[in-house]
Amino acid sequence: MLFNSLQFLLFFPAMLLLYHQLNHRWQNRQLLVASYIFYAAWDWRCLFLIIGSTVVDFYCGRYIARSSDPKVRKSLLLLSITVNGGALLFFKYFNFFVSSATGLLEWAGLPASSHVLQIVLPVGISFYTFQTLCYTIDVYRGKLIPAQNLFDYALYISYFPQLVAGPIERATNLLPQILNPRTVTPNACFEGAYLILWGFFKKVVVADNLCRIADWGFGNVSELNTVSALVTIYAFAWQIYCDFSGYTDIARGCSKLLGIELMVNFNVPYLSKTPSEFWRRWHISLSSWFTDYVFIPLGGSRNGTWASYRNIFVTMLLSGLWHGAAWTFVAWGAFHAALLSAYRLLGTERINRLPGFLQTILMFHLVCAGWVLFRAASVTDAWLFAETLLRWSAFSLPPKAYLLALVVPLTAVEIIQYRNGNQFPVFRWPAPVRVACYVGAYAAIMVIGRWDATAFIYFQF
User: What is the pTM of this model?
Assistant: First the structure.
């Protein structure tokens, strides 16, 4: 079920109306049923996978906390990791590993035959798998008291606003809000409504219009010139940001109306000055997950310079692979690992010699260079795209290039948010200005928004 669909626009208000008539216990039961209905709308067969994962991890967490035997605790943790990691590897990466191995054997001149399977990728599997893994790991580390009720834990895993595209919530944040009674304040309603409006503006007005430019450009790489290639990558940079952060805004807004606070997943990332700052602002729930459960356990920066660079590369390569089963995503992860390492080598003093606005412009364009790898159909296409950018040719624009102007009001709001350190600066503006902004955003959604139920980009991950 897509947020930007008539189905959801009927589903959520009806669910919300009933929700506020129930007590806490029945609110949780209703949310669990609604979450399973929401997920089953994609493919009801995938429900068996998420329910199976939920049951395994609920009991693993429960018995890890009860046991004092280190071997038993470790065995239960490994069971949880094997079940969840195995499902993720099979559904998302089986065909990738098989085709890669076949290609390697053919390159070596050895006989090989590829046997790929027609596997349906369960939507959101990368997100909820990481969410359930951090639960059992935190219980094992003694940082979390396990849930005592299976239905409450099931709601933590399947909570529909953030189920299929995040943010990846930690149990330490979301589970207590599920277990305790909730109150929806008027301020939460205002913030929730604003986030929903702003999220729809990002998705159906900006992202779904800019995809026309990006899809044409990346689908016709051989026809691009330097200018059209630049416009294409700018369009995709803003498309993916508005698509993904728009989903998060809608998810957070809906959740606020239910009395549950989801974490901020994006914090004006394109105004970052360094790669490390970018990853503190972009997909925050994922970058913090990899920091806490991959980078730090590997040793982080504790074991010397070269060990820290190794850990950066391992972490970012896995992060790239998390995004998709293709070598372009691995290359994208390696690119960002190289950026993080290069900025570390340069040091803060050298970087700060540049004026702040030039640091931001440079970082934005480095991120855009990475988006070429992320979006290209193959590494070959990405290389051809890069060659086009570096080789000046006749001036021409891609079709509908004028749509890039949609980022102007968006950027203005982002700069105001950045300078004020506040996600809701509009609430401080005079009433006539606020009303004009709300009406303008709503009019844009209704008039130029694309309501063809285009799926969010990160649903494929």
Answer: 0.91
Last residue of a domain, one of 149, 182, 215: 182
One domain for residues 399 and 435: yes
Residues 208 and 85 in one domain: no
Burial 266-296 (b: 16+ CB within 10 A, else e): bbbbbbbbbbebbbebbbbbbbbbbeebbbe
6 within some domain = no
Query: Do 257 and 335 reside in the same domain of the chain?
Result: yes
**CA-CA distance, 30 to 256, in Å (whole number)?**
16
**Catalytic-role residue among 20, 24, 283, 323:** 323
Q: What is the pLDDT of residue 387?
A: 86
Residues 148, 235 within the same domain = no
**Tell me: the pLDDT tens digits for 222-272?**
888 888 999 999 999 999 999 999 999 999 999 999 999 999 999 999 999
Taking alpha carbons only, the member of 189, 161, 202 closest to residue 3 is 161
CA atoms within 13 A on the CB side of 427: 13
**Intervals of the chain under pLDDT 70:** 95-120, 394, 453, 455, 458-461
Active-site residue, 115 included: no
Burial class, 263, CB count within 10 angstroms (exposed 0-12 / middle 13-18 / buried 19+): middle
What span, in angstroms and rounded, lies between the C-alpha atoms of 441 and 201?
Answer: 6
3-class state of residue 253 by DSSP? helix
DSSP state of 93: I
Backbone angles phi, psi at 20, to 5 degrees: -80, 0
Which pLDDT belongs to residue 120?
66
What are phi and psi for residue 304, nearest 5 degrees? 105, 165
Number of other CB atoms surrounding residue 309 within 10 Å: 17
- State the residue range of the domain holding 414: 187-460
Tokens of 122: 């369960």
Closest by Cα among 370, 272, 295, 300 to 329: 370
Element (H, E) at 85: helix 70-88
- In angstroms, rounded to a whole number, what is the distance separating the alpha carbons of residues 168 and 178? 16
Q: What is the pLDDT of residues 403-419, one digit of tens each?
A: 999 999 888 888 888 88
Location of structure tokens 């955003």: 441
Burial, 379: exposed, middle or buried (Cβ in 10 Å; 0-12, 13-18, 19+)?
middle
Closest CA relative to residue 147, chosen from 172, 167, 116? 172
pLDDT of the residue at 423: 83
Residue 192 and residue 172 share a domain? no
Nearest to 122 by CA among 88, 96, 71, 97: 88
Residue type, 342: A
Query: Would you say how long the chain is, in residues?
Result: 461
The total number of structural domains in the chain stands at 2
